[in-house]
């Protein structure tokens, strides 16, 4: 899976611009700062902040962005007055930043021309719902290090020993051992290793006949109860999250395609 790029993150933040504060034009040392410029700065700040939703919701968000832009403008004027903008290293860095800005707007333009459709969101949601499954399970388990330990526990339980008592005494799962090995309602799809298939293969009240392996060790597994799926969110609850997921995929595919088209060559070093 391709990782999220800077361009993708910025584009997604820009696409959420309608949720931003209502910025107003202002001037710094006589230089006009437009609403669009502030929104661009805000988008970059949001794209690089894991608490973006909280930032947008803050009543002080407009003032924070205005202060940020003011600092940029004041310090940029200072740099120009001192001739710092004429230094070769600074020129090279500015050129790189220009490329990043163009990349951001290219991605944003692509998303505008190729928006995520309602049908695409519904299709993605249905894939996730199908992966979750139609049923949820309440389990009881005992986690041990070796297959031999698990086999011995299965024999003890089949011989009449208490599953809950053995879980409390033997299980390596600190969270569930105090409640007799109970794992509360969950989809089988969330479990790793062989657990998911093993869960689906058991009926209510049944215990696995053999140890079930996962990355954590070996499990003695029992399905306590089964019900129709209830935990998976409704479409409207997942809609915006799905939209952003699909936007990210579109952007990644777009950038990847452009890279494949590019003529990229290593430069031989002169001896």
Descriptive report:
This protein has two domains: 172 residues, no CATH class; 95 residues, Roll (Chitinase A, domain 3). Strands 4-3-6-5 form a four-stranded antiparallel beta sheet. It has a two-stranded antiparallel ribbon with strand order 1-2. The protein is of the alpha+beta class and 271 residues long. It has eleven helices and six strands. Strand 5 and strand 6 form a beta hairpin. Helix 1 packs across helix 2. It is 55% helix and 13% strand. The chain is elongated and about 85 Å long. The N terminus is likely disordered. Its EC number is 5.2.1.8.
Q: How large, in whole angstroms, is the Cα Rg?
A: 28 Å
Q: What is the helix fraction of residues, given as a range? A: 40-55%
Tell me, what's the shape? elongated
Mean pLDDT: 89
Number of strands: 6
Describe how the helices and strands are arranged.
Layout: H1 6-15, E1 26-28, E2 31-33, H2 35-47, H3 52-57, H4 61-81, H5 88-113, H6 118-132, E3 135-144, H7 147-158, H8 163-170, H9 174-177, E4 182-186, H10 195-200, E5 212-214, E6 217-228, H11 235-261
Antiparallel strand pairs: 1-2, 3-4, 3-6, 5-6
Helix pairs in contact: 1-2, 1-5, 1-11, 2-4, 6-11
């Amino acid at each position: 899976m391709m990782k999220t790029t800077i361009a993708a993150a910025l584009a997604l933040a820009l696409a959420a611009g309608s949720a931003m504060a209502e910025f107003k034009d202002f001037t710094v040392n006589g230089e006009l700062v437009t609403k669009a410029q502030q929104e661009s700065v805000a988008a970059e700040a949001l794209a690089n902040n894991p608490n973006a939703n909280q930032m947008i919701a803050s009543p002080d968000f407009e003032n924070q962005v205005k202060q940020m832009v003011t600092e940029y403008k004041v310090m940029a004027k200072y740099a120009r007055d001192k001739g710092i903008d004429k230094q070769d290293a600074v020129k090279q860095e500015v050129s790189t930043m220009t490329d990043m800005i163009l990349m951001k707007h290219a991605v944003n333009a692509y998303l505008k021309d190729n928006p995520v459709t309602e049908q695409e969101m519904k299709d993605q949601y249905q894939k996730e719902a199908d992966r979750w499954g139609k049923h949820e399970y309440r389990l009881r388990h005992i986690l041990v290090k070796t297959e031999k330990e698990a086999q011995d526990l299965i024999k003890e339980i089949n011989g009449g020993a208490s599953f809950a008592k053995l879980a409390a005494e033997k299980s390596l799962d600190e969270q569930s051992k105090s409640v007799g090995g109970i794992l509360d309602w969950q989809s089988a799809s969330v479990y790793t290793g062989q657990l998911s298939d093993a869960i689906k293969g058991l009926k209510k009240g049944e215990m696995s006949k053999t140890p079930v392996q996962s990355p954590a060790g070996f499990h003695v597994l029992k399905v306590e109860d089964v019900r129709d799926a209830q935990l998976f969110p409704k479409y409207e609850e997942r809609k915006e999250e799905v939209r952003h997921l699909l936007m990210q995929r579109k952007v990644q595919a777009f950038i990847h395609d452009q890279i494949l088209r590019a003529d990229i060559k290593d430069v031989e070093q002169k001896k």
